[in-house]
């Protein structure tokens, strides 16, 4: 239907409903010669008829004014000016392309007229102005579905192919973010001009063939896309191993392509919006096919385009919005579709009164359309689920459905509670390019035919794990070793074949071309495709290359010579116990003796006497328990408890010491010549490591000077240097990684040992360039070989003749007993002793509380108070009921004990109790106290009568 017929129909409709309807003037700007434009116009024509046949009682009508933009942005802008200035439209449907919408939306914003497009899908359009309505799902809504496909097949790298236009570049940032969310990287972006020549297309395709990535995401118009796939098939890029994903724009219009294009696109995956099936959709599709308009080629040959459905729903939404706005005054005149523009007043048009109301009404319109639910969110169609399509034969096969919240499913209502929504198992079988059913791995060695160049370090010694030897018969290099076999087994375990060649990292004369860091840097420069061998993962190296998971344990240890302990040392008897244990034991001997003396002094004659005897008893009593039973009688129950616990401690300590000392005198003990790094640095000793190893940097960080670090090329040199020692031109310690250290010690088990901590490193791994897709697959293969024991079998094969060294460490574990072993024991005896003393002191203070109160309240010096209390404590307590037996072998009777020293000589024997207490105090306290005591307060001293203080005889 051309524009003239639509105008006639609109005018007739206006005259028919002149008395009871209000017409809304709607401009339509489309590329009428294009498939999408002609289809959209036909669908809007049917929609207009369907809507008003159903809603014949509505008081509003839409009058369409069609303009052809002729696929040019400037023509679309000119048509928009004509509609806004001359026709004074209330809304504009279109334009068709994103580039045209960029011009037109600014005009609509100035005139406050809604610009509603059902085919411009660039994500950046709807943010420019509120008067642009994107009545189609933007391209950004499909990036989640594409990223989900990439994640499901575990592709780590993709190539993006898009056209250089508003439509093509608008999706790029959204796709980049989506791929980043699924840990996929974009290895290359190929930008095609809209009018790209065949030569340009071939050049770009050949460039992409040299890449390792084999997953391509295509976003371009169907005309350019058809040419791209034809050329890709011609040069062999639609064969087995390739994976192609196309966006919804190409999928929707794929039926328009010729049969040779359809054949070229076999095995391509794509996404397109999910259209719910309904009876209305089937009826509309049938009527549209029967219409068979001349300007809509292709309609009737395949499924209906989503753009046609969006055009249908958009016109329905606009008609519903017009009805909500209500009646308005019709325009005075309606111009024909001819464009008559005057440059002088090009933008001389006023603001629409109906436009803002119409924009608000359509933004609030919601209904179930042919394409699904029509609902605008911030001026843009809400997102929905997407079909995952496989191009097979002459049609499209649905292999899955992607939902923004549920992920990939086989069917929309399929229960996925027990499935991984990102798994390929959630999709039906797929036919890949080349009529293959094998999932492409996503990368391949470039088709240049070259093998992967694998660098191998060259070493003069330490060749048990990596060996590069020269075969003089064939004049070739033979590369072997334990770690070389590990690499070969890993490559064989990959699910695909990777051709490679091993290349020694050497100079023309066969010597090493540099250190391990130099070899890794050559991988960074892409002179090698990988590097293998005994290469340790370090933080600095990881800045330049990627490492696989380690296949051998890491860690750096120190190897030092063994020395033997001298059993004839005059101080050998002190060595069974460490210094801190000796000091702690002596301290507890003294504290236990002091505690027993305090507990027994007032009640037992064995713990009384002159001060020298007191000190001797404190030291003598606990030590006597070591060799014989003590003869002193223990009277106080608290003292008995302390002694019992102490005897238990003595028993264990004595037994342990005896066993350790006996072992030292009967078994020869090994000990390291050097114990730790700080001792080496302090003594400025020389240390060694392998030549070219990262351990040189490791030792620098530990504090060693470069002048004190020596490198060696063979185990023999290391053995000789360790044997000589630093003072004789050798080294005091040799540092190496754990695998080499174990091998070295197995050959010299009786000469060397490891000391100090194991410094953690991440082990040996294979090296690949940054971003290499091989890293993940090789790492998985390493895990598989480790779990099934293959690596252990290879280790036993290569190192089966090497003796296992138990190492001298086992003989060193119990050389000297530390305090740690007796902390619990000392805690028990200390706790029991402390509690017993607290109970005793509390009982003593309570029993003689009146005396202590009197002393505390007296007006004498603090020192005199302390002396008075100490003399009172020193007196014999006979109230306990213990007999006053003589001290054995002391020649001192109980009546001549130390109490006599505090009895003034001029006091009579029958002195009152109150004066007895005072007499036992110092002279100053005696004078102060007797001056205040008189007959009126003697009753207050009655409590002192029971103090238990007994005056000695004269």
What does this entry look like structurally?
The chain is of the alpha/beta class and 954 residues long. It folds into five domains: 22-136 and 277-295 and 302-328 and 349-373, Response regulator (Rossmann fold, 3-Layer(aba) Sandwich); 142-276 and 385-413, 3-Layer(aba) Sandwich (Rossmann fold); 452-547, D-Maltodextrin-Binding Protein, domain 2 (3-Layer(aba) Sandwich), CATH 3.40.190.10; 556-564 and 671-800, Periplasmic binding protein-like II (D-Maltodextrin-Binding Protein, domain 2); 572-667, Orthogonal Bundle (Helix Hairpins), CATH 1.10.287. It is built from 31 helices and 29 strands. The chain has an eight-stranded mixed sheet, with helices on both faces. β8 (215-219), α9 (222-234) and β9 form a beta-alpha-beta unit. α8 (198-209) crosses α9 (222-234), α17 runs antiparallel to α19 (637-666) and α19 (637-666) packs antiparallel against α27. The protein is elongated. The termini are far apart. Mean pLDDT is 79; it is low at 1-18, 298-302, 332-344, 806-814 and 884-954.
CATH architecture of the largest domain: 3-Layer(aba) Sandwich
Average residue pLDDT: 79
Structural class: alpha/beta
| C-alpha-based Rg, rounded | 50 Å
Classified by CATH, the class of the largest domain is Alpha Beta
End-to-end Cα distance: 147 Å
User: Helix segment count?
Assistant: 31
Strand content: 15-25%
CATH superfamily of the largest domain: Response regulator
Largest sheet: 8 strands, mixed
Going across the major beta sheet, what is the strand order?
7-6-8-9-10-14-15-16
Form type: elongated
- Uncertain ranges: 1-18, 298-302, 332-344, 806-814, 884-954
CATH topological fold name of the largest domain: Rossmann fold
């Amino acid at each position: 239907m051309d524009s003239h017929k639509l105008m006639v129909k609109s005018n007739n409709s206006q005259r028919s409903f002149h008395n009871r309807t209000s017409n809304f003037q709607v401009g339509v700007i489309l590329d009428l010669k294009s498939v999408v434009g002609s289809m959209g116009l036909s669908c809007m024509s049917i929609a207009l008829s369907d809507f008003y046949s159903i809603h014949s009682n509505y008081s509003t009508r839409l009058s369409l004014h069609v303009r052809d933009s002729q696929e040019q942005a400037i023509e679309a802008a000119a048509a928009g000016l004509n509609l806004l200035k001359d026709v004074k439209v209330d809304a504009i449907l279109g334009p068709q392309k994103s580039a045209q919408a960029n011009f037109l939306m600014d005009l609509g914003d100035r005139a406050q007229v809604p610009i509603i497009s059902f085919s411009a899908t660039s994500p950046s359009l709807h943010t420019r102005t509120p008067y642009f309505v994107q009545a189609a799902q933007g391209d950004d809504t499909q990036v989640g579905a594409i990223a989900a496909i990439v994640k499901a097949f575990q592709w780590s790298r993709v190539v993006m192919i898009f056209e250089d236009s508003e439509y093509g570049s608008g999706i790029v940032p959204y796709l980049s973010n989506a791929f980043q969310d699924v840990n996929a990287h974009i290895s290359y972006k190929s930008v095609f001009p809209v009018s790209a020549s065949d030569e340009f297309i071939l050049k770009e395709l050949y460039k992409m063939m040299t890449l390792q990535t084999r997953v391509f995401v295509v976003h371009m118009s169907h005309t350019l896309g058809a040419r791209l796939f034809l050329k890709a098939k011609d040069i062999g890029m639609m064969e087995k191993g390739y994976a192609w994903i196309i966006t919804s724009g190409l999928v929707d219009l794929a039926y328009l392509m010729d049969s040779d294009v359809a054949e070229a696109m076999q095995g391509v995956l794509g996404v397109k919006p999910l259209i719910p099936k309904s009876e209305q959709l089937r009826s509309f599709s049938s009527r549209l096919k029967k219409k068979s308009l001349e300007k809509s080629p292709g309609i009737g040959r395949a499924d209906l385009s989503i753009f046609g459905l969006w055009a249908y729903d958009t016109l329905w939404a606009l008609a519903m919005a017009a009805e909500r706005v209500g009646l308005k005054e019709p325009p005075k005149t309606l111009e024909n579709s001819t464009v008559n523009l005057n440059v002088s007043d090009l933008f001389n048009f006023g603001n629409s009164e109906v436009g803002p109301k119409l924009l608000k009404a359509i933004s609030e319109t919601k209904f179930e359309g042919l394409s699904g639910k029509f609902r605008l969110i911030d001026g843009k169609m809400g997102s929905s689920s997407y079909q995952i399509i496989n191009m097979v034969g002459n049609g499209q096969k649905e292999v899955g459905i992607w939902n923004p919240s549920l992920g990939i499913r086989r069917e929309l209502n399929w229960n996925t509670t027990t499935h991984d929504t990102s798994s390929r198992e959630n999709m039906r079988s797929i036919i890949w390019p080349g009529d293959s059913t094998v999932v492409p791995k996503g990368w391949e060695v470039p088709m240049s035919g070259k093998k992967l160049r694998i660098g191998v370090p060259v070493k003069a010694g330490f060749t048990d794990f990596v060996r590069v030897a020269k075969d003089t018969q064939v004049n070739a290099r033979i590369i072997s070793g334990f770690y070389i076999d590990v690499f070969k087994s890993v490559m064989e375990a990959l699910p695909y074949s990777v051709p490679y060649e091993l290349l020694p990292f050497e100079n023309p004369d066969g010597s090493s071309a540099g250190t391990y860091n130099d070899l890794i840097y050559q991988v960074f420069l892409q002179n090698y495709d990988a590097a293998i061998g005994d290469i340790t993962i370090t933080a600095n190296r990881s800045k330049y290359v990627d490492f696989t998971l380690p296949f051998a344990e890491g860690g750096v240890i120190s190897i030092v010579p063994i020395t033997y302990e001298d059993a004839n040392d005059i101080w050998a008897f002190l060595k069974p116990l460490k210094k801190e244990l000796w000091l702690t034991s002596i301290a507890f001997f003294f504290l236990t003796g002091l505690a027993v003396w305090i507990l027994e002094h007032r009640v037992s004659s064995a713990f009384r006497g002159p001060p020298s005897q007191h000190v001797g008893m404190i030291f003598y009593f606990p030590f006597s328990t070591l060799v014989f039973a003590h003869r002193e009688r223990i009277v106080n129950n608290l003292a008995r408890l302390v002694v019992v616990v102490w005897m238990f401690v003595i028993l264990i300590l004595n037994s342990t010491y005896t066993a350790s000392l006996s072992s030292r005198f009967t078994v020869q003990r090994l000990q390291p010549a050097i114990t730790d790094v700080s001792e080496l640095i302090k003594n400025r000793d020389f240390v060694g490591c392998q030549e070219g190893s990262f351990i040189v940097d490791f030792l620098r960080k530990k504090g060693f000077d470069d002048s004190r670090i020596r490198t060696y090329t063979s185990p023999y040199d290391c053995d000789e240097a360790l044997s000589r020692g630093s003072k004789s031109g050798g080294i005091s310690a040799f540092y190496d990684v754990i695998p080499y250290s174990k091998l070295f010690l197995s050959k010299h088990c009786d000469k060397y040992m490891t000391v100090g901590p194991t410094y953690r490193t991440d082990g040996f791994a294979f090296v690949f360039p940054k971003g290499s897709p091989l890293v993940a697959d090789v790492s998985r293969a390493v895990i598989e070989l480790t779990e099934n024991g293959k690596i252990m079998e290879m280790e036993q094969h290569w190192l089966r003749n090497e003796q296992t060294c138990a190492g001298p460490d086992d003989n060193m574990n119990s050389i000297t007993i530390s305090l740690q072993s007796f902390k619990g024991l000392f805690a028990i005896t200390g706790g029991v002793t402390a509690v017993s003393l607290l109970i005793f002191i509390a009982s003593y203070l309570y029993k003689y509380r009146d005396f202590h109160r009197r002393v505390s309240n007296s007006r004498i010096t603090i020192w005199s108070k302390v002396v008075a209390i100490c003399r009172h404590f020193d007196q014999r307590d006979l109230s306990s009921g213990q007999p006053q037996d003589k001290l054995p072998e002391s020649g001192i009777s109980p009546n001549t004990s130390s109490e006599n020293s505090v009895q003034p000589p001029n006091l009579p024997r029958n002195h009152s109790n109150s004066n007895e207490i005072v007499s036992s105090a110092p002279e100053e306290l005696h004078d102060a106290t007797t001056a205040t005591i008189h007959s009126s307060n003697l009753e207050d001293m009655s409590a002192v009568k029971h103090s238990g203080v007994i005056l000695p005889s004269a």
